[in-house]
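Dear colleagues,

As part of the handover before I leave the project, I'm documenting each prediction I ran so the next person doesn't have to rerun anything. This entry is a single chain, and its sequence is reproduced below.
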Amino acid sequence: MAPPDRAVLLGHGAGSDRNAPALLAVSERLTGAGIPSLRFDFPYRQAGRKAPDRPPVLEAATREAAAGLAKDTGLPPERLVLGGRSMGGRYCSMVAGHDADPVPALGLVLLGYPLHPAGKPEQLRSTHFPRLALPVLFVSGDRDALAPRPALEEAAHAIPGPVTFHWLEGADHGYRVPKSSGRVPADVLNEVAEVTAAWVTNLPPG
């Protein structure tokens, strides 16, 4: 069997860690597809703290994790897909779209991208979008208060690379759905994992 020609880096959200249910589900599905992945903790989680590190620390940790995955798999950086949940995905997109020292990547997987801070829709986190000249997958709930569908789709127009949206019906930012939907959390996570693994699998071969 030929060695894998791609691998996926998965960062966690601000209030979670590398064992977040969505990251575990995606990682398991990728493994089933023969694609290696790496879930990593930011330094504050490694130290047992709840408050996220300052932006320079989060950025440096993301770069370090990407370099570590490239080394462990023997793949060049441009064969890695970077991403993760909320803050983790955001920082992966920021290093990929850095204005002075961008990290090369095969694509971005943004699971619940936090377009703006809670209650501050005017503070858009999209200034780096025009520098994302690579494929981008957004997997978001259509009830996500941190990235309403019209606002996220409008912001994504600035991305020069090919953009794919997958909207999770009834899901909020945490991928929670109301009981009235008839769905359970496992249903949503399975959808997230299936969509993500299929998208990563269909990226151009090396």
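The chain has a mean pLDDT of 97. The longest helix spans residues 55-73.

All the best with the project,
I.
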